[in-house]
Each structure stands twice: as C-alpha cells, then as structure tokens.
Design a protein that fits this description.
The chain starts with a helix and ends with a helix. The radius of gyration is 20 Å and the shape is elongated. The longest helix has 35 residues, at 11-45. It contains 9 helices and no strands. Helix 5 (82-107) crosses helix 7. The chain has helices at residues 3-9, 11-45, 50-62, 65-72, 82-107, 111-119, 124-154, 167-176, 179-213. 81% of the residues lie in helices and 0% in strands. It is mainly α and 214 residues long.
C-alpha cells in the first residue's frame, strides 16, 4: 500500500488527529497572545523589567520540550491531563517571539510620530492604541507567525504525553518501524506549518503595507 493509499484508507483518523493538532496549536497561541503582547507592552513602559521578562522567556526556550513536559507532569491539575500539559508547554514556548516582537515593534516606532501625538494632546493610552500598536502591528504579526509555525512542529511531540495530534502517527510509526505511519503524521504537520507561514506571512506584509501608507 502506497503512502497516498494509506492516507485515503485512514482519512477519518488523519482528519481527526489534524483537528486535534490544530486545536492544541490554536488554543496555545491564543493564550500566548493574551500573555505575550501585554508583557511586551509592559516592558516598553517599565524598561527595568525588560531583562527579567525577556530573560525568563529565553530560559524557557532553552528547556528541551520533553523535559518541560516531564516537569509539568507534577504540576497540580495540569499534569493529570495530557492536553492541558501540552497547551501550557506550547504557550510557554510561544511567548518569546511574541514578547520580543511586541517590544521591538513599539520601541522602533518613529519618536517624531509619538511626539507629534503628544503635541496633539493624546494620552499615553491613546498613543498606544492609536499610534504605536498600529505602526508595530506588522512586527507583532511576524512574532505570531513564528510562534505559530514553531508550535505546529512542537505539537507533534505532545503525543508522547497522550495529548493527541498528528504526533500519534509519528510515535506509532517509530514504534512499529512503519514509514507510512510516520509520513501520515509528518506530512500533514509540515503542510499545516507551510500554510500557516504563507497565510500569516501574507497578513504580515499587508499590515506592513498599511503602515507604509500611514
């Protein structure tokens, strides 16, 4: 049986695991955005926190994914459920590009534009929402794109702790030395990563073009 025949014969399982995979990534990126972008904004307002926040996010990136899953096994409420553990781990890994890009995007806004806003009587909150974030949106979107693509790859490892996703095929294939099973997990995961990169990259360029026109 060829690889394509295998995909057709097991299309329901492939579809189910793909949806599980996308759910893990989508939920983790949602939480990472809710945490990472505000943290990025915070350290532009309180610069003394930048080293601690960025340093902590960098440390998380250096922890191997399986080791992080192992640490989380002992966390109350989290460790008892594979999906919860996977979402938490993926969220932590996605924080660095979001915090770093939000910080860099806002810091690189032309100071003359900010000063012009202040001269018009805008408050700090108005400057943030009406000037800085719109101008930094392209850079922030680049961080979301990087975080999403990385999370799609890391989510395959989540199957090792029973969280589901396309990694189920990969680990099953490795244990059975079955190339078709490995490819059934690896190929859809690679396609998802490529689609996310292309789609979010197009949105990033669109936001960059809007910034240029502004």
């Amino acid at each position: 049986m060829s690889f394509w025949d295998f995909l057709i014969a097991h299309r329901q399982e492939v579809l189910s695991l793909t949806v599980e995979h996308m759910t893990l990534v989508g939920v983790s990126i949602f939480f990472a955005v809710l945490i990472g972008i505000p943290l990025g904004i915070l350290i532009t307002r309180v610069p003394r926190l930048s080293k601690a926040v960025l340093g902590s996010a960098n440390v998380i990136q250096t922890i191997p994914s399986l080791a992080l899953f192992g640490f989380l096994l002992f966390a109350p409420w989290i460790g008892a459920r594979g999906a919860r553990m996977a979402i938490l781990a993926l969220t932590l890994y996605a924080l660095l590009p979001l915090i770093r890009n939000t910080y860099a995007g806002i810091r690189n806004v032309d100071p003359a534009v900010v000063e012009a806003g202040r001269a018009m009587g805008m408050t700090d909150r108005q400057l943030l929402w009406q000037v800085e974030l719109p101008l930094a949106s392209g850079v922030i979107m680049a961080g979301i794109r990087v975080a999403t693509v990385v999370s799609i790859g890391l989510a395959t490892i989540a199957a090792a702790i029973g969280a589901g996703g396309l990694g189920e095929f990969i680990f099953r294939g490795l244990s059975m030395v079955n190339t078709q099973l490995i490819l059934a997990g690896a190929v859809p995961a690679a396609v998802l990563a490529l689609l996310a990169d292309v789609g979010l990259g197009a949105l990033e360029r669109r936001l960059g073009a809007l910034k240029g026109r502004a």
